[in-house]
Here is the input.
Amino acid sequence: MAHKGIPADARPSPSPPTSPLAEALATVGDRWTLLAVAALLDGPRRFGDLGRELPGIAPNILSARLRRLEQAGLVVAEPYQERPPRFVYELTAPGRELAGALRLLEGWGGRHREEADSPRHAVCGSPLEARWWCPTCEEALEGAADGDELHFA
Here is the structure.
């Protein structure tokens, strides 16, 4: 919805996130942000390199997404040139923690494509599955894919 002619401070503000999932989506919940994070999982990248790895992204969109990731503490921008200012972007530890979520999304996407190119076990070729695991009890939770046994504090 356009807000032409309405001062920024008079516009309705978005509702604050009401759950951990809503909070995560507010931070990384758009196509380009997650693809930028995925590209950075392989290591630090310069802006131009990221642009080439994300065909179709406009430079202003990439710039905005990297700025938002930096503000969220998921990316660090290190200058490598002063004039003009240029940066190398690298994931922080919290940014690297998104690798598991991206693998889950990639697997889900692969299972729901006609080509079914989901991640597979290298030994037997079977599609891989994600399971909820309690490291303290050292047990997998049955039915957790449906949320049956999950209790978030």
The mean pLDDT is 82.
